[in-house]
Amino acid sequence: MKITVVGTGYVGLVSGACLAEVGNDVLCLDLDKEKIRILEEGGIPIFEPGLLEMVKRNVAAGRLHFTTDIEQAVAHGTIQFIAVGTPPDEDGSADLKYVLAAARNIGKYMTDYKVVVDKSTVPVGTGDKVRAAIADELKARGIEVPYSVVSNPEFLKEGAAVEDFMRPDRIVVGAEDEQAIHLMRALYAPFQRNHERLLVVDIRSAELTKYAANAMLATRISFMNELALLAEKLGADIELVRQGIGSDPRIGWHFLYAGCGYGGSCFPKDVQALIRTSNGVGQPMQVLQAVEAANDRQKHVLVDKIVARFGEDLSNKRFALWGLAFKPQTDDMREAPSRVIIEELFKRGATVTAYDPVAMHEAQRIFGDDGRLTYADQPLSALEGADALVIVTEWKEFRSPAFDTIKAKLKSPVIIDGRNIFSPELPRAAGLEYYGIGRK
Ligand code: UDX
Fold this sequence. Notes:
Helix content is about 45%, strand content about 15%. The chain is of the alpha/beta class.
């Protein structure tokens, strides 16, 4: 099949590469010339396991191409994916300007039938706006060309995006005409494993499903984070409570980990957008307001623990930070707890030496050449003379350190673990003070 993907960000590039991988002829459009230059030179503008190899393989096979030429992109695919950004605007609603501009461009240049598929996370009702934008452009041209609009939200996780696309749990397709449904079924046939995973629903339900999934997951995390703080006050251990509730199949094991707050490009933005949407139709979701407030507070919990241990004035103190990315396997620092932690430490006069396997260049971009933030080339070298070790991201390589060495390098023998990656008795046996989240 001939497919165009508009937008070579996270979702667009992963979708384009994976669709090419199964044999489609894919053209990716981006107006950002720099991004297209990187892609054409065999690189990728983001870090995502397995993606670079997949892009290279498909470019070499002649199934994956890149362009900045809108007219060429519209002419190419019968299926036109819109996978552009929907950044929050000032009030937290999703800003649709890029989505609607992409729709207008399709209307401006299309000459034959197109299925226009929304893959960006968009508020309920966007399908209608996309349809209207295309209709407008066709009307201005004084022609009629048939087209369908489809909503096909993406559930991929950063760090596992390629795997999630290639082996999805479900594929939600919001479509309301047979021709589009037929094409979407054919498109996704290679991704069905042993049972039907494609769920055809109406467009609005598909749009809401995306927000519902992310908001539900964020709710679980904020719930566990609040419960962890409560456990601390009550002298209980959140890890044991987690095991006790996760074993109930109605609750399940996933997304029950208390920590220093959720970040990333999806949860914070989508929770906010759903709050706006629900307020906008007079059906406010009070649960979600609490989810957001609890998460904002949770990003301060590690600094609260530091202050409880070292006092409010942290001048002349330096903290070693393990982990900058909002989660492992990515260099993404959008809404990352590390950003709040670093800022709060700076405010109290402290300096920070950070180590992250892939996100240090991103931190450099965000914090610039701020002398208060320095970088270490190894986890252990960040500790030399630092007042405490603060763990913010649960990278695998942090999980089994030599606690004796940590103790020897630190000025005060303190570990503040924002992801509960250690059993408390191990650092304690080495003579370290250990503070986790909700641990006894
Ligand atoms: C999320 C959704 O999982 C994905 O389906 C959607 O398409 C996009 O948003 P992503 O943002 O990549 O994916 O990260 P995810 O792995 O879901 O983690 C989000 C945040 O929650 C991270 O900051 C992580 O540290 C935190 N988290 C996750 C917890 O604090 N506790 C948990 O138990 C799980």
